[in-house]
Amino acid sequence: MEYVSTRGSNKVDFVEAIHLGLAHDGGLLVPNVFPNLQQRMLETAHLPLPDFANVVLQPFVESSALEASLEHICQHAFSFPVRTKKLSDSLTVLELFHGPTLSFKDVGARFLAQCLSQIKEPRCILVATSGDTGSAVASAFSNLQNTNVVILYPKGKISPRQQAQITCWGKNILALGVNGVFDDCQRLVKQAFTDQAIKEQYHLTTANSINIGRLLPQMTYFAHQASLYFLATGTPINYIIPSGNLGHVTACCYAKQLGAPIAQVTVATNENRTFPEYLHTGRYFPKATVKTLANAMDVGAPSNFERLSHHFPSHADVLAHVSAFAVSDDQIKQAIIGAYREHGYLLCPHTATAYHVAHKLQPNEQCLVATAHPAKFEDVIEALIDEPVPVPAHLQRLLDKFQQVHEVEPTLAAILDVMTQYW
Ligand SMILES: *Cc1c(COP(=O)(O)O)cnc(C)c1O
Question: For residue range 412-421, what is the model confidence (pLDDT) as tens digits?
Answer without folding.
Answer: 999 999 999 9
